[in-house]
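FORM 12-B: Structure-to-Sequence Request
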């Protein structure tokens, strides 16, 4: 089970509300350290980040703050209890090595949670976009372009081998948050499997630019929220309707290779690493219990 995917499970609200923008790195680190604190700070952080994409006026900022609070209230009451069940099942799987076929349903379940949250916030996102003016559309387009430059700088710079090594190091860092230090043999295992994973950075950038272009076009055309909402759903919930078939096949192949890598890694875990993984999962379960009790 990917550490990044599991972290996203508790921060789905952030991912969905920003509609594909990169998760705030500071917030991600905070979620690892204190999930309850990170979750409780999502409202102001998301409002601040939304204001970073367009210069919201006072009325718009109040509206965004209220809608984010409403979405998080729904998420706390309806979704967090489901994550608790997910984590309980994941915890049970950590007692012994698992297979790639064991990993896949957990991944699919997380994806379904993400889609559900995205669908929940699409109407509010459509209403916000429909209310932006021409100047705000320009601000949005500029911020999207800045994000793409940052992504290209971080993901596309260097030789293919340098880029692969950077991805391996990043993935290993996530694993160590959950498992503690990796052995040399485990690092070699991750590196070997990563050599077989296709580098889809160019395709990911193409996805981003397509979605961004569609959003800016809708704002510039003064589309209504009724017209925007189904287009957002297609962009973010139904990407298989517009992605090239060969890219979708690459995504499926990468997913399967990742499942196989995690399964192979699970067979090498020491008792200490397995205990660290279980402790991390229980910590998230405790965070969920605290959050739902406070709600």
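FORM 12-B RESPONSE
SEQUENCE OUT:
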């Amino acid at each position: 089970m990917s550490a990044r995917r599991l972290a996203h499970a508790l921060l789905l609200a952030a991912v969905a509300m920003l509609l594909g923008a990169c998760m705030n790195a500071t917030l991600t680190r905070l979620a690892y350290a204190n999930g309850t604190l990170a979750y409780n700070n999502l409202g102001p952080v998301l409002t601040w980040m939304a204001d970073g994409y367009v210069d919201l006026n006072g009325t718009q900022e109040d509206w965004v703050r209220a809608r984010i609070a409403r979405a998080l209230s729904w998420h706390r009451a309806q979704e967090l209890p489901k994550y608790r069940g997910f984590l309980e099942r994941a915890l049970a799987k950590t007692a012994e090595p698992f297979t790639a076929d064991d990993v896949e349903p957990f991944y699919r379940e997380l994806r379904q949670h993400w889609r559900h949250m995205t669908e929940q916030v699409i109407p509010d996102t459509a209403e916000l976009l429909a209310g932006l003016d021409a100047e705000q559309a320009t601000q949005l387009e500029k911020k999207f372009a800045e994000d793409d430059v940052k992504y290209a700088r971080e993901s596309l710079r260097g030789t293919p081998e340098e880029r692969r090594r950077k991805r391996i190091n990043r993935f290993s860092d996530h694993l160590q948050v959950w498992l503690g230090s990796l052995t040399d043999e485990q690092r070699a295992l991750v590196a070997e499997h990563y050599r077989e994973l296709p580098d889809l950075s160019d395709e990911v950038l193409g996805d981003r630019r397509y979605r961004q272009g569609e959003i800016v076009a809708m704002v510039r055309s003064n589309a209504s929220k009724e017209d925007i909402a189904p287009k957002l759903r297609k962009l973010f919930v139904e990407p298989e309707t517009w992605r090239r078939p060969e890219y979708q096949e690459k995504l499926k192949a990468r997913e399967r290779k990742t499942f196989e890598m995690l399964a192979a890694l699970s067979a090498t875990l020491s008792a200490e690493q397995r205990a660290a993984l279980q402790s991390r999962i229980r910590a998230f379960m405790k965070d969920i219990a605290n959050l739902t009790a406070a709600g």
